[in-house]
Protein backbone atom coordinates (compact mmCIF):
# COMPACT_ATOMS: atom_id res chain seq x y z
CA UNK A 1 0.00 0.00 0.00
CA UNK A 2 1.26 3.49 -0.85
CA UNK A 3 1.55 5.65 2.24
CA UNK A 4 2.01 9.40 2.53
CA UNK A 5 4.74 11.01 4.62
CA UNK A 6 3.29 13.90 6.61
CA UNK A 7 5.36 15.76 9.21
CA UNK A 8 7.36 12.72 10.26
CA UNK A 9 4.57 10.14 10.19
CA UNK A 10 3.17 7.83 7.52
CA UNK A 11 -0.55 7.83 6.84
CA UNK A 12 -3.00 6.37 4.37
CA UNK A 13 -3.64 8.87 1.55
CA UNK A 14 -7.33 9.10 2.43
CA UNK A 15 -6.61 10.07 6.04
CA UNK A 16 -3.58 12.35 5.55
CA UNK A 17 -4.62 15.99 5.92
CA UNK A 18 -3.30 19.47 6.56
CA UNK A 19 -4.93 22.46 8.21
CA UNK A 20 -7.37 24.65 6.27
CA UNK A 21 -5.22 27.53 7.58
CA UNK A 22 -2.04 26.15 6.01
CA UNK A 23 -0.37 28.90 3.98
CA UNK A 24 0.34 26.47 1.17
CA UNK A 25 -3.42 26.00 0.78
CA UNK A 26 -4.36 29.63 1.45
CA UNK A 27 -1.66 31.41 -0.57
CA UNK A 28 0.49 28.88 -2.41
CA UNK A 29 3.19 29.85 0.11
CA UNK A 30 5.50 26.90 -0.27
CA UNK A 31 7.90 24.90 -2.39
CA UNK A 32 8.04 21.53 -4.08
CA UNK A 33 10.46 19.19 -5.79
CA UNK A 34 9.56 16.36 -8.16
CA UNK A 35 11.95 13.42 -8.23
CA UNK A 36 12.09 10.21 -10.24
CA UNK A 37 13.33 6.73 -9.44
CA UNK A 38 15.10 4.28 -11.71
CA UNK A 39 15.23 0.69 -10.42
CA UNK A 40 14.44 1.94 -6.92
CA UNK A 41 17.19 4.57 -7.00
CA UNK A 42 16.31 8.25 -6.69
CA UNK A 43 17.70 10.27 -9.58
CA UNK A 44 19.92 13.17 -8.46
CA UNK A 45 18.45 13.44 -4.97
CA UNK A 46 21.37 15.59 -3.87
CA UNK A 47 20.77 18.19 -6.57
CA UNK A 48 17.07 18.31 -5.79
CA UNK A 49 17.86 18.94 -2.12
CA UNK A 50 20.36 21.64 -3.12
CA UNK A 51 17.61 23.40 -5.06
CA UNK A 52 15.11 22.95 -2.24
CA UNK A 53 17.51 24.58 0.24
CA UNK A 54 18.26 27.41 -2.20
CA UNK A 55 14.56 28.06 -2.75
CA UNK A 56 13.81 27.94 0.97
CA UNK A 57 16.47 30.56 1.69
CA UNK A 58 15.09 32.72 -1.12
CA UNK A 59 11.61 32.84 0.48
CA UNK A 60 12.82 33.00 4.11
CA UNK A 61 11.54 29.53 4.95
CA UNK A 62 13.48 27.57 7.57
CA UNK A 63 13.40 23.92 6.56
CA UNK A 64 12.64 21.71 9.57
CA UNK A 65 14.93 18.82 8.63
CA UNK A 66 18.61 18.22 7.94
CA UNK A 67 19.79 16.91 4.58
CA UNK A 68 20.24 13.49 6.16
CA UNK A 69 16.69 13.56 7.49
CA UNK A 70 15.33 14.60 4.09
CA UNK A 71 17.20 11.73 2.46
CA UNK A 72 15.92 9.25 5.03
CA UNK A 73 12.33 10.48 4.67
CA UNK A 74 12.47 10.20 0.88
CA UNK A 75 13.93 6.69 0.97
CA UNK A 76 11.40 5.57 3.59
CA UNK A 77 8.57 6.91 1.46
CA UNK A 78 9.99 5.05 -1.53
CA UNK A 79 10.21 1.84 0.50
CA UNK A 80 6.47 2.09 1.25
CA UNK A 81 5.56 2.00 -2.43
CA UNK A 82 4.77 -0.86 -4.77
CA UNK A 83 7.60 -1.97 -7.04
CA UNK A 84 8.34 -0.09 -10.24
CA UNK A 85 9.68 3.33 -11.19
CA UNK A 86 7.82 6.15 -9.55
CA UNK A 87 7.64 9.91 -9.20
CA UNK A 88 8.25 11.31 -5.72
CA UNK A 89 7.07 14.74 -4.69
CA UNK A 90 8.44 16.76 -1.77
CA UNK A 91 6.13 19.60 -0.75
CA UNK A 92 6.93 22.11 1.99
CA UNK A 93 4.62 24.93 3.01
CA UNK A 94 5.16 27.68 5.56
CA UNK A 95 2.60 25.92 7.76
CA UNK A 96 -0.66 26.93 9.43
CA UNK A 97 -1.13 30.38 10.88
CA UNK A 98 -3.88 32.94 11.33
CA UNK A 99 -4.96 35.17 8.46
CA UNK A 100 -2.52 37.73 7.09
CA UNK A 101 0.49 37.87 4.81
CA UNK A 102 3.17 38.53 7.42
CA UNK A 103 5.71 35.74 7.88
CA UNK A 104 5.67 34.47 11.46
CA UNK A 105 8.97 32.95 12.52
CA UNK A 106 7.43 30.53 15.00
CA UNK A 107 5.16 28.81 12.47
CA UNK A 108 6.12 25.16 11.94
CA UNK A 109 6.40 24.23 8.25
CA UNK A 110 4.28 21.45 6.80
CA UNK A 111 6.20 18.65 5.04
CA UNK A 112 4.54 16.14 2.71
CA UNK A 113 6.25 13.46 0.61
CA UNK A 114 4.19 11.38 -1.79
CA UNK A 115 4.87 8.86 -4.53
CA UNK A 116 2.99 7.69 -7.60
CA UNK A 117 3.82 5.38 -10.51
CA UNK A 118 5.84 6.99 -13.26
CA UNK A 119 3.82 7.41 -16.44
CA UNK A 120 6.14 8.46 -19.29
CA UNK A 121 4.89 10.09 -22.49
CA UNK A 122 3.77 7.65 -25.20
CA UNK A 123 6.60 6.02 -27.15
CA UNK A 124 5.30 7.76 -30.27
CA UNK A 125 6.19 11.12 -28.73
CA UNK A 126 9.88 10.15 -28.75
CA UNK A 127 9.67 8.69 -32.25
CA UNK A 128 7.72 11.54 -33.82
CA UNK A 129 8.22 14.50 -31.49
CA UNK A 130 5.59 16.71 -29.88
CA UNK A 131 3.89 19.99 -30.80
CA UNK A 132 4.45 23.11 -28.69
CA UNK A 133 2.85 26.54 -28.67
CA UNK A 134 4.79 29.74 -27.97
CA UNK A 135 2.89 32.08 -25.67
CA UNK A 136 4.13 35.73 -25.70
CA UNK A 137 4.17 37.65 -22.43
CA UNK A 138 3.37 34.57 -20.36
CA UNK A 139 6.60 33.96 -18.44
CA UNK A 140 5.96 33.82 -14.71
CA UNK A 141 8.21 35.75 -12.33
CA UNK A 142 8.14 35.93 -8.54
CA UNK A 143 8.69 39.51 -7.43
CA UNK A 144 11.85 40.17 -5.46
CA UNK A 145 13.70 37.06 -6.66
CA UNK A 146 16.47 37.15 -9.24
CA UNK A 147 16.19 33.43 -9.95
CA UNK A 148 13.21 31.16 -10.54
CA UNK A 149 12.27 28.66 -7.82
CA UNK A 150 9.88 25.69 -7.58
CA UNK A 151 7.07 27.63 -5.96
CA UNK A 152 3.80 25.91 -5.05
CA UNK A 153 1.91 28.74 -6.76
CA UNK A 154 1.46 27.23 -10.22
CA UNK A 155 -1.79 28.86 -11.29
CA UNK A 156 -0.29 30.72 -14.25
CA UNK A 157 1.31 27.55 -15.62
CA UNK A 158 -1.89 25.55 -15.08
CA UNK A 159 -4.05 27.98 -17.04
CA UNK A 160 -1.59 28.35 -19.92
CA UNK A 161 -1.08 24.58 -20.14
CA UNK A 162 -4.87 24.05 -20.17
CA UNK A 163 -5.30 26.54 -23.00
CA UNK A 164 -2.63 25.08 -25.30
CA UNK A 165 -3.60 21.45 -24.64
CA UNK A 166 -7.15 22.32 -25.66
CA UNK A 167 -5.67 23.66 -28.90
CA UNK A 168 -3.93 20.37 -29.61
CA UNK A 169 -0.43 21.11 -28.33
CA UNK A 170 1.50 19.03 -25.79
CA UNK A 171 3.34 21.90 -24.08
CA UNK A 172 3.44 25.70 -23.89
CA UNK A 173 6.72 27.57 -24.29
CA UNK A 174 6.60 30.73 -22.20
CA UNK A 175 8.01 34.06 -23.38
CA UNK A 176 8.83 37.13 -21.31
CA UNK A 177 7.87 40.76 -21.89
CA UNK A 178 10.83 41.21 -24.23
CA UNK A 179 9.73 38.24 -26.36
CA UNK A 180 12.55 36.04 -25.15
CA UNK A 181 11.89 32.33 -24.89
CA UNK A 182 12.16 31.19 -21.28
CA UNK A 183 10.90 27.66 -20.49
CA UNK A 184 7.89 25.39 -20.75
CA UNK A 185 5.15 25.14 -18.12
CA UNK A 186 6.88 22.03 -16.74
CA UNK A 187 10.07 21.83 -18.79
CA UNK A 188 13.25 23.49 -19.97
CA UNK A 189 13.86 23.98 -23.69
CA UNK A 190 16.94 23.37 -25.84
CA UNK A 191 17.62 24.00 -29.50
CA UNK A 192 20.35 22.74 -31.82
CA UNK A 193 21.75 25.10 -34.43
CA UNK A 194 24.57 23.87 -36.70
CA UNK A 195 25.63 21.30 -34.12
CA UNK A 196 25.63 23.84 -31.28
CA UNK A 197 23.38 23.25 -28.26
CA UNK A 198 21.63 26.37 -26.98
CA UNK A 199 19.33 26.91 -23.98
CA UNK A 200 18.12 29.98 -22.05
CA UNK A 201 20.16 30.72 -18.92
CA UNK A 202 18.58 30.38 -15.45
CA UNK A 203 17.10 33.62 -14.21
CA UNK A 204 13.94 35.23 -12.88
CA UNK A 205 11.82 33.42 -15.50
CA UNK A 206 13.89 30.27 -16.11
CA UNK A 207 14.20 27.46 -13.57
CA UNK A 208 17.54 25.67 -13.29
CA UNK A 209 16.12 22.23 -14.06
CA UNK A 210 17.97 19.19 -12.74
CA UNK A 211 17.68 17.23 -16.00
CA UNK A 212 18.70 20.41 -17.82
CA UNK A 213 21.93 20.55 -15.79
CA UNK A 214 22.69 16.88 -16.44
CA UNK A 215 22.16 17.29 -20.19
CA UNK A 216 24.54 20.27 -20.30
CA UNK A 217 27.18 18.30 -18.39
CA UNK A 218 26.83 15.30 -20.70
CA UNK A 219 27.09 17.54 -23.75
CA UNK A 220 30.28 19.19 -22.50
CA UNK A 221 31.84 15.85 -21.55
CA UNK A 222 31.18 14.60 -25.08
CA UNK A 223 32.55 17.69 -26.84
CA UNK A 224 29.19 19.05 -27.90
CA UNK A 225 29.47 22.86 -27.97
CA UNK A 226 26.78 24.35 -25.78
CA UNK A 227 25.86 27.86 -24.67
CA UNK A 228 23.33 29.33 -22.26
CA UNK A 229 21.90 32.26 -24.20
CA UNK A 230 18.67 34.18 -24.72
CA UNK A 231 16.55 32.71 -27.52
CA UNK A 232 13.89 34.22 -29.77
CA UNK A 233 10.84 32.63 -31.34
CA UNK A 234 12.53 32.88 -34.72
CA UNK A 235 15.47 30.84 -33.46
CA UNK A 236 13.05 28.13 -32.35
CA UNK A 237 11.36 28.08 -35.77
CA UNK A 238 14.70 27.96 -37.63
CA UNK A 239 16.44 25.46 -35.34
CA UNK A 240 17.80 22.17 -36.65
CA UNK A 241 16.44 20.41 -33.56
CA UNK A 242 14.40 21.32 -30.49
CA UNK A 243 13.80 19.26 -27.36
CA UNK A 244 12.34 19.62 -23.87
CA UNK A 245 13.70 18.29 -20.59
CA UNK A 246 12.35 17.52 -17.16
CA UNK A 247 12.53 14.75 -14.60
CA UNK A 248 9.61 12.75 -15.96
CA UNK A 249 10.17 13.09 -19.72
CA UNK A 250 14.00 13.05 -19.82
CA UNK A 251 14.68 14.47 -23.34
CA UNK A 252 11.52 14.86 -25.42
CA UNK A 253 11.92 15.97 -29.07
CA UNK A 254 9.80 18.78 -30.49
CA UNK A 255 8.65 18.37 -34.08
CA UNK A 256 6.53 21.50 -34.50
CA UNK A 257 6.33 24.93 -32.83
CA UNK A 258 3.37 27.20 -33.54
CA UNK A 259 2.71 25.34 -36.77
CA UNK A 260 6.33 25.65 -37.92
CA UNK A 261 7.98 22.28 -38.61
CA UNK A 262 11.34 21.94 -36.90
CA UNK A 263 13.68 21.01 -39.78
CA UNK A 264 12.02 17.97 -41.42
CA UNK A 265 9.66 17.45 -38.50
CA UNK A 266 11.47 14.43 -37.10
CA UNK A 267 13.64 14.07 -33.98
CA UNK A 268 17.20 15.07 -34.82
CA UNK A 269 20.46 13.13 -34.41
CA UNK A 270 21.89 15.19 -31.55
CA UNK A 271 18.65 14.92 -29.56
CA UNK A 272 18.70 11.14 -29.99
CA UNK A 273 22.41 10.93 -29.17
CA UNK A 274 22.09 13.01 -25.99
CA UNK A 275 19.12 10.93 -24.88
CA UNK A 276 21.17 7.74 -25.32
CA UNK A 277 23.98 9.30 -23.29
CA UNK A 278 21.47 10.27 -20.63
CA UNK A 279 20.16 6.71 -20.39
CA UNK A 280 23.71 5.31 -20.25
CA UNK A 281 24.36 7.70 -17.38
CA UNK A 282 21.33 6.25 -15.62
CA UNK A 283 22.55 2.68 -16.20
CA UNK A 284 25.97 3.60 -14.82
CA UNK A 285 24.38 4.78 -11.57
CA UNK A 286 24.09 8.51 -12.36
The CATH architecture assignment of the largest domain turns out to be: Alpha-Beta Barrel
Topology order in helix (H) and strand (E) letters = EEHEEHHEEHEHEEEEHEEHEEEH
The count of helical stretches stands at 8
By secondary-structure content and strand pairing, the structural class works out as alpha+beta
- The span between the termini is 28 Å
Describe the structure in your own words.
The chain is 29% helix and 28% strand. It is globular and about 55 Å long. It has helices at 23-27, 45-58, 67-79, 123-128, 155-166, 210-221, 233-238, 269-283; strands at 4-6, 9-11, 30-38, 41-42, 86-93, 110-117, 130-135, 171-175, 180-184, 188-193, 196-199, 226-228, 231-232, 241-246, 250-257, 260-261. The strands form two sheets. Strands 7, 8, 9, 10, 11, 12, 13, 14, 15 and 16 form a ten-stranded mixed beta sheet that branches. A six-stranded antiparallel beta sheet has the order 2-1-6-5-3-4. It has two domains: 4-117, D-amino Acid Aminotransferase, Chain A, domain 1, CATH 3.30.470.10; 123-283, D-amino Acid Aminotransferase, Chain A, domain 2 (Alpha-Beta Barrel), CATH 3.20.10. It is α+β, with helices and mostly antiparallel strands and 286 residues long.
